[in-house]
Amino acid sequence: MTIKILGRYIIADPSICHGEPTFRGTRILVKDVLEQIESGMAWEAIIEEWGGKLTRDAIADAIHLAREALSVYDPEISTEFACT
How many CB atoms lie within 10 A of CB 66? Predict the structure, then answer.
């Protein structure tokens, strides 16, 4: 099985966390970080929580990919949130 490059900072490697999306070079699951954002946690606190293994750019990449996934589900979503 091959590694899927999902974003600049995000991969899905079958040998890491059963192939779930993680941040490159870590075992940090993207879904865990998205849950932290959803709970209202500040990005700097998330970075600190993960021992500095993440960057603001990596977190932004996760949000971008989540938004892309939603736009595949419903293309109108990407335009609905563009001007809020």
Answer: 15
Indicate the number of domains in the chain.
Answer: 1
CB 32 within 8 A of CB 45: no
Question: Which CATH number do you get for residue 8?
Answer: 1.10.10.10
Whole-model pTM: value is 0.82
Condensed to tens digits (0 to 9), the pLDDT of residues 27-41 reads 999 999 999 999 999
- Could you list the residue range(s) of the whole structural domain that residue 39 is in? 4-80
Q: How many other β-carbons are positioned within 10 Å of the β-carbon of residue 4?
A: 12
Q: How far is CA 30 from CA 3, 9, 60, 62, 80, in A?
A: 15, 10, 11, 7, 24
